[in-house]
Amino acid sequence: MQEDISAQPEQDELFEHHRIAIDKGQAIVRIDKFLTNRLENTSRSRIQNAADAGNILVNDKAVRSSYKIKPGDVISIVLSFPPSEVEVIPEDLPLDIVYEDDHVVVINKESGMVVHPAYGNYSGTLVNALAYHFKDLPLFSSGEMRPGLVHRIDKDTTGLLVVAKTELAMTRLAKDFFDRKIYRRYIALVWGDFEENEGTVIGNIGRNLKNRKVMDVFPDGDFGKHAVTHYKVLERFRYVSVVECRLETGRTHQIRVHMRSIKHPLFNDTEYGGSEILRGTRFTKYKQFVNNCFELCPRQALHARSIGFKHPATGKEMIFDAELPADIASCIEKWRNYSAAGGHPGEEQE
Fold it and tell me: Is the pTM value of this prediction over 0.90?
């Protein structure tokens, strides 16, 4: 079953940001009380926790929850994504835990696992697994939809996710994602060769106007949200290339739709045109070779290789790496050997 993104927020970073300019007639009142009344589905304790994490700014300076707002103040607040009313059923599912302490856990997600429940995927998700494995923790025992999540990756994308185990850790990580302080590096196999060795794709990303289950790139100012992807070519195999992508922003399907927009869709990406033979020859053996590669890696060839962040409790800089999964690694090796051999003799070039 395909992951239904139409019921999900239009970003992979699960936080919300509010900016509020205080009216001239506003009475002086504590900021936690004001924000609790102003923001929907936000408790006073959630606001106070955001202040403790340094996530509430007034006139660009962090304030405590006891701060008294004044006319003319400008408030900026970043919160972890609000909980959903949908109850999560804990499930005993296997998790590849790369690192864990009392505050965070880093997961190496396998292909085929949806990160959080949505229409059509209410079980078997990463959130269901987290709810079971950490059911004794306060953050995971409430039955909320997205316990500990501050970002996500697609169902068929593999790789690293950081998950908060406490409310404070979740709030601080959400702020770091908002401030673009989280380091994320992906490895992808894409169609085509590049003239340059590295580059940057800048283009607003939003839901396709005709099909809300996929995303699209729009000119600045029209639709969507600002998105930036930096890429570097690691290997070239004539018809496909291995690239490293570094995210500056975190929009839904960002790498997949950005690479498609520059005519380099991800290899075997069915939703963005990469599951057809887009480069190469009309030679029958070549077509069979590509189809064999599709069977070897039956999904988009995208892996969240590295993640780096400042520990929300200790402040220590941490970075983690996950090796390429077997399907992508085998597919790349197959292309590497094919390229080294010069392809099949007698190929007719397009």
Answer: no
